[in-house]
Design goal:
32% of the residues lie in helices and 44% in strands. It is of the alpha+beta class. The strands form two sheets. Strands 1-2-3-4-5 form a five-stranded antiparallel sheet, with helices on one face. β1 and β2 form a beta hairpin. The protein is elongated and about 75 Å long.
Length: 131
């Protein structure tokens, strides 16, 4: 009898852990979608300059100062005027890959969740003085 109670509790614990894992994955996916929307807004007033493995280098259209979106210490951050703003946390790996007129952003979040987004570099983002 004691053994069957232990087995039932163990089974319930495993089911609960699976439900918690699914819920955490949903939360991480929501955080990713919020990040993509925020990134789009951050890039709206910037000229694209170049891509490096861990960052996108941009220039502010209004004051012509450099800005970059960078993977650093488990976060994707926006660096501007010596300060930085975290855009996405709990990041295990992030790669920024230039593909023609687009930047592919491949990210591995905690719990091994792989996500990706593509930023299309439109004419309004091209810095005519650099090109």
């Amino acid at each position: 009898m004691l053994l069957s109670i232990i087995c039932l509790l163990f089974s319930a614990s495993i089911k609960n852990a699976a439900a918690v894992t699914r819920q955490l994955k949903k939360v991480k996916e929501k955080e990713w979608h919020i990040f993509v929307i925020q990134l789009e807004n951050e890039l709206k007033n910037c000229y694209y300059e170049r891509t490096q493995a861990n960052k996108i280098v941009l220039r502010n259209q209004k004051n012509n100062k450099p800005i970059w979106i960078e993977y650093k210490l488990g976060k994707i951050v926006k660096v501007e005027n010596g300060g930085y703003q975290p855009l996405l946390t709990e990041v295990e790996q992030a790669d920024f890959i230039e593909e023609g007129k687009a930047i592919l952003i491949k990210v591995t979040l905690e719990e091994n969740l792989n996500v990706a987004a593509k930023w299309i570099i439109t004419q309004e983002h091209e810095n005519q003085s650099v090109l």
